[in-house]
UniProtKB/TrEMBL annotation, chains A, B:
Domain called D-glutamate N-acetyltransferase-like N-terminal: residue spans: 40-125
InterPro entries per the UniProt record, alphabetical: DgcN-like, DgcN-like_C, DgcN-like_N, P-loop_NTPase
Matching SUPFAM superfamilies: P-loop containing nucleoside triphosphate hydrolases
Source organism: Inquilinus ginsengisoli
Domain (D-glutamate N-acetyltransferase-like C-terminal): residue spans on this chain: 131-328
Designated name of the protein: NAD-dependent epimerase/dehydratase family protein
Top-level division of the source organism's lineage: Bacteria
Length: 332, 332
């Protein structure tokens, strides 16, 4: 996948801000890569970008319409389809984070084909992968891991990229989920590849590179999540990372989607991730903690981070509140 | 998948015995479910069953033609296709362990459709799965795990089924790979499901059952295999097994397909499997060792098993040489 910029972000008729969180993530991390947003009547979300019509966006050079909104029940309304067809007519490609493929909409697929436009269904890998070899490769790699799903692995990886680039380091975010792929303009949705190729897809995503170049690989799931741990382990082996950052949300009552499963102890989670990572990266270790403390008041957040630093002997950051400078310091 | 018996085993023009190992496995474990074998000119393999023509097999009641042979380069020859078409005409379904789908052969697909026959491409799941819940379910479950791929996990699981049934226990082999599925008449090729659903597919394969019923689940890969460990971990969590049997081939020089990767220490492999299994099955433990000692002379094999028993405090069996009675004793 090689999704062309700049983007026009389509928010559709999103019923609330959460429904547009994919578009919001793109705007947050790649504002310079977006000409604006397109909202239909009744839309209750915003990315904080200028509202543009399709024609205005085309005039500003938009190359790709980004479907960055969760639709209800997996169905694409007529209004959405009309928007897509018109975008194709105006010269844009379309990239979608929807679960259902836009390439399966006959009218959209036919129009794209006729006009020579590209359709990117980023939840679905568009190529085959080789089986992983596990062989050492050059370059430096960091993988975000977690105590659970949705604890800020993507956000942390992007924050690390921004911080490292600001320091003049060579660093690239490597996306493994839909929002990350739309942000990066490429990547692979590793939880959607055939099981035998999880590690192979990850090796493909983060190939050999310059000795001083960092790949910052977006983790998925958790070794302690009963639904998805296979994906997490395949990623861990394929990433061959020397550095892991453990992501966590303090106070979460149970594992996401599993009301009877407790969140693991952070020390256990560090130990198991390091142990498993060393199969392909013998010196792998956790170099920092990234907490999402958004549910805590500032004093509690500060105390929580301080306590974690003391307990684990690692820099503990909240990418939003404190930035990830302390973790990059540790890497350097 | 619900593949009807009895089978006619198709060996094609297999160049050697190894090319027909899938058919051989079916004959070895389900001889009573097979009417005979069908070989084309030049075939150099045998399952030790009567050679039959398609017409003779149909007269003996064959319900399914089993394509139990690896073809060269993934292409199906004209001769094979003629055999398949004639089998459909004679009333048989077809089940194939080939990597390429027989359902993608237009002539075969059309004929099957026209006649109302079923085509089973057992390497490819034919349904969608839910995400795993990890919730406790009734029934007893055993999973074979391993230090590596191809160390006898399927063979051990089937040997356990045979031994337990001979003792009057309720036990069912649950297949997770192509040969196992053809032997069992159903199952799911877990390494071919979408990565997010490895554990979910395993939960589906081994559902809640009577409190005294054993599911004997065929393991895949190894937590220590850099290519496939994600599949192994997803299986381990989805199986929710109380009992694990560690399979191993003494003397193997390196991990299968990875010449630079050493085979893990058995104690490490036991510890990591138990630790990970306990996420969904808190009392999970390794109850026995199953070694493939076929490369060793009888005295060395006997000594190797004895030493392993002493070192690990577990019954150590070679399913072929000693049978798995000692492991079943330990379970009882």
């Amino acid at each position: 996948m090689d999704i062309r910029r700049p983007y026009l972000l389509f928010l559709g008729d999103a019923g609330d801000q959460l429904a547009a969180k994919t578009a919001y993530g793109v705007a947050q991390w790649r504002r310079d890569g977006c000409v604006g947003q397109l909202r239909l009547e009744g839309c209750r979300a915003t990315c904080g970008l200028p509202d543009l019509t399709l024609e205005e966006a085309a005039a500003k050079g938009a190359q790709t319409l980004i479907i960055g909104v969760a639709n209800r029940g997996g169905r694409v309304s007529e209004l959405w389809q009309d928007t897509m067809l018109r975008a194709l007519d105006l010269g844009m490609d379309i990239a979608s984070g929807l679960h259902n493929r836009i390439a399966d909409l006959p009218a959209v697929a036919e129009r794209a084909q006729a006009l020579g436009r590209s359709l990117f269904d980023v939840r679905h890998p568009d190529r085959d992968f080789d089986v992983a070899t596990g062989e050492p490769r050059s370059g430096r790699r960091l993988l975000t891991v977690g105590t659970d799903c949705s604890v800020g692995k993507m956000f942390t990886s992007l924050a690390l990229e921004r911080e490292m680039r600001a320091r003049g380091l060579k660093a690239d975010f490597r996306a493994t989920g839909q929002t990350g792929i739309l942000i990066a303009g490429g990547g692979v949705s590793v939880d959607a590849v055939v099981a035998d190729f999880i590690s192979g897809a990850t090796e493909w995503l983060s190939p050999a590179n310059d000795p001083d170049h960092w790949d910052l690989i977006e983790g998925q799931g958790s070794l302690f999540h009963a639904s998805y741990a296979g994906v997490s382990l395949g990623l861990l082996h394929g990433a061959q990372a020397e550095a892991l950052v453990m992501c966590h949300e303090p106070g979460r009552p149970h594992m996401r989607g599993l009301p009877k499963s407790p969140v693991p102890d952070i020390a256990d989670c560090i130990a198991l991730n390091e142990r498993c990572a060393r199969l392909t990266s013998p010196n792998a270790r956790v170099v920092g903690l990234a907490f999402n403390t958004s549910a805590l008041d500032p004093q509690t957040a500060e105390r929580t981070l301080k306590e974690a630093e003391d307990r684990y002997g690692l820099p503990a950051a909240d990418p939003v509140r404190t930035g990830v400078g302390a973790i990059v310091d540790r890497l350097a």
